Amino acid sequence: MDxxxxxxxxxxxxxxxxxxxxxxxxxVDRISSDGQLAREYAELKEQTELLAEVTKADTxxxxxxxxxxxxxxxxxxPRTPAATWASRTLQVVAxxxxxxxxxxxxxxxxxxxxxxxxLALAKQKESLASHFLSVSVTGPSLMAAEVRNDFxxxxxxxxxxxxxxxxxxTFKNPEGATVYYGLTKAxxxxxxxxxxxxxxxxxxxxxxxxxYEQAKSKLDxxxxxxxxxxxxxxxxxxxxxxxxETVNIRAVVLDPQTNRDQSANVAFFYRVPNQRGLNRIxxxxxxxxxxxxxxxxxxxxxxxxxxxxxxxxxxxxxxxxQQRALPVVESRAKATEELARxxxxxxxxxxxxxxxxxxxxxxxxxxxxxxxxxxxxAGVSNRVRYMATRDQAQTTRAQxxxxxxxxxxxxGNDKLNQDYGYFEFVPQPMQDYTVxxxxxxxxxxxxxxxxxxxxxxxxxxxxxxxxxxxxxxxxVRVAQPNNTLALVATDGYNTIGHxxxxxxxxxxxxxxxxxxxxxEASGAQRVQxxxxxxxxxxxxxxxxxxxxxxxxxxxxxxxxxxDVDGLPxxxxxxxxxxxxxxxxxxYNSPAQATLGVQMERMSDVLxxxxxxxxxxxxxxxxRRVQIPATAAGLxxxxxxxxxxxxxxxxxxxxxxxxxxxxxxxxxxxxxxAVASKDAQREASSPQAKLPxxxxxxxxxxxxxxxxxxxxxxxxxxxxxxxxxxxxxxxxTAAGAILVVCLIGLAVVQGLPKIGVWGPGxxxxxxxxxxxxxxxxxxxxxxxxxxxxxxEMVALNEVSDNISTESQRxxxxxxxxxxxxxxxxxxxxxxxxxNSGNWSFGGGMTDEMPQxxxxxxxxxxxxxxxxxxxxxxxxxxxxxADQPDPSAAGMGGSGDAPGLAxxxxxxxxxxxxxxxxxxxxxxxxPNTPPQxxxxxxxxxxxxxxxxANIKPAESMMALSAEAEKLLPEPILWKxxxxxxxxGQINIPVQLPQQPGRYRLLIDAHGSGRxxxxxRYVEVLPPNLASPTPSPLKKAVN
Length: 1036
What we know:
Layout: H1 3-15, H2 21-33, H3 35-55, H4 64-74, H5 81-111, H6 114-129, E1 133-140, E2 149-157, E3 166-172, E4 178-185, E5 190-195, E6 205-212, E7 215-222, E8 231-236, E9 246-254, E10 267-271, E11 279-280, E12 292-298, E13 307-313, E14 321-327, H7 336-347, E15 366-371, E16 382-389, E17 398-403, E18 409-413, E19 420-425, E20 432-439, E21 445-451, E22 457-461, E23 465-467, E24 472-478, E25 484-490, E26 495-502, E27 509-515, E28 523-532, H8 535-539, E29 545-555, E30 561-568, E31 570-571, E32 576-584, E33 594-601, H9 614-622, E34 625-626, H10 638-643, H11 645-654, E35 656-657, H12 672-683, E36 692-696, H13 698-749, H14 754-775, H15 804-819, H16 826-833, E37 853-854, H17 890-893, H18 951-958, E38 968-977, E39 983-989, E40 995-1005, E41 1008-1018, E42 1031-1035
Parallel strand pairs: 23-29, 31-41
Antiparallel strand pairs: 1-2, 1-36, 2-5, 3-4, 3-6, 6-7, 8-9, 9-12, 10-11, 10-13, 13-14, 15-16, 16-19, 17-18, 17-20, 20-21, 21-37, 22-24, 24-27, 25-26, 25-28, 28-29, 30-32, 30-42, 32-39, 33-38, 33-40, 34-35, 40-41
């Protein structure tokens, strides 16, 4: 204890006299000296005295006898031994009943663990889901003939999780026999089923069987192959004819997928505009030989029409017929200026109006712009492509820019003399955007591109021009989540590649997609991006939406190269030439091919076509692509265009697809013209057709899975119901026994013990009532879904959503444009077959914005800080192997005049002029154009001095004769065959008439095409050289 407690103890001992004398004396002295201890001692002494007084008080002792009597009076005493036994028995039974009652209440809680039950049920569901596999197949609605076709198979379990199952697929013919069998294993639930090209035409059904452990799922899909119908290309020995002339015609029939020549029974017809019906060309072959059928047409002697429509008809062709317009003109009866005007209309370009110089001219500044894919999508980065040219005489600084709402600049650059490129920016919804060229102190040239729309995604193709054996690299910039997109590549008739996927919940996001297209699919192809309807919308017959469309070009990897020996750059009048033509394949091995040879004297007035020449250019490009009205002239050789892939891709991005006329079912040749007009009207109405089908048994599998899942739930509910019933019976029995026992105790013990048996009786009665009620309760049962057979989910083709008014406006505009244009060769097909597809949005739905050109004053606005990516060509000329045009004369160049419009402006890349309908930046006085010397891209060797002839002297000598106004055919060999060494000798007798002559040689066979164009200048007699000109080889 502490010091204070010890002192207090000593003070108590002092009070009670328990200390010794010495200790007492010491303590008294200490208390006397310390006032605080004195006070405590006084208080402690007072307390002890009070306690002593209390103990001395007189108290009454307890009466224990009385307490015992009172206790004995309160204890119930049984009257008899039997009552005592009964009371004890009831107490024991009541205790047992109470235990049973407690057990009845605890039994459900001890038997059912909610967490364990949930985990067990989840494991059972997972195990059950793996036993139900759903198969989904996505493939072409119409399989392309003669090429490989792919079908994408997706395997999922009932919980929509991918399953790496073993997939067995079988293609069968109509009789049920196996055409092609394959066995593979899915990776991440995905697998590709391929059918070889040789078996496509026989397959009518695809059976897919997926196996995983004990699970098995089967899906049958009806497939259909496109009839392997070929396409005919019509060629003539001259681009323009005169009344009364005999025109040579040939039709080359090729397979659209493999480019192989096909056999077909054909019939040739012609029709003039002022006559109804078709006229059969009697002097023509009725069937093809080596893919070629030829004939001759005597042009009617009449001046009432400007062109003759040539038609080749056959039920074996893809569209039953093919037609081509041949311009007809009387050269001696018309002035040179009228011929030049006709040339502008017929050949579709901004040609020189000077009759003595078809190669001169300088185009004014112009612009064409279009979002890649056709639509400007709000919320994601868009690529807007443009082409622009400026006056060559202008050297002021120009700026290309994109302006949005409130005249604010959203993208731009300030490079000089740019001719093409692209802008990238993120547009805002419902805002108009304009691309414009701004020069110092000049009015800007504008092109309103589009209004930004709230669409699911935007399209960007990274390799629009690439070899056919490379996959197509596409970036889909998703703007809206939870959508299903379909990327489809077609050749206008068949599906050659497709991909269908769900974009997920993340947006905006860029998703890379690759399409592995067949190697045989070469040339221009059509790529479309569709937005698929949801499952609910599919059930309500909703249709896909076409949201983007783009043209690509696949460079053939299998093609012919043609070498020509024995053709000089200049020759004397009447000189005999012996040409050696050699054809090799891509491996430089000799190839036996079918040739078509044409030679003609070039017109001094009419310009040449601004599209690639020959069978290769017509087949791969001209028949499919409609270039914009403001596009520059293309090179005459498609291979020169392929070399400059960046600029070629720009042309494709701004072009539209030529809609093929619908196939005619009429066998009457007189109905072909009517069918052609109907097909043109149908083609002028853009439609969003989905050439991809999707089949799935997911609904049926889900139905079966839900039934099995309902059975599991029923089993669990049955177990729970058994526990509940047992607990209810236990509760009712225990409560009843307890009630009986407590009533008995109440009778035996009486009312004085009501505080004991009363509450127990109430609890027992409540237990009985709850047990009776719970026995009559039942949990609601889960009704399983009704079983149904496998359900095929198909995606219907989209119908034409264009309003009648929109169709009428487009048709009237196209007809007005067609009246002002004539065409030769492929250009005529463009006018006839695509009268409604002159806008940039051709082939799209009515929701696409219409491009409205406008020339306005420059709007002032603050520039945005957003950066733009701009791709420009500001370096050397487009085709590196071409010499400088200004350094060569007409006589020594040997070039194709078709390349003249591609002369390179300063710092540009060959965009010297656009179409005749283009807009001017400003009004300028008409100045006589400076002549440009044509050149030959294949002539790289030095020329003799005689080649440096002045163009003015040559043109003055040539313009003196009226026969030089129109082209004149010199040589026509529609069907020649090379020897096993791939060679053939062609003798050529040059005419006496001086001029420029073009040799065009086409080759086809073994799925390969080739074209070569060569030129020779026949000198006037006074300039003829006694020394023969050096020979040189032309390599295609």
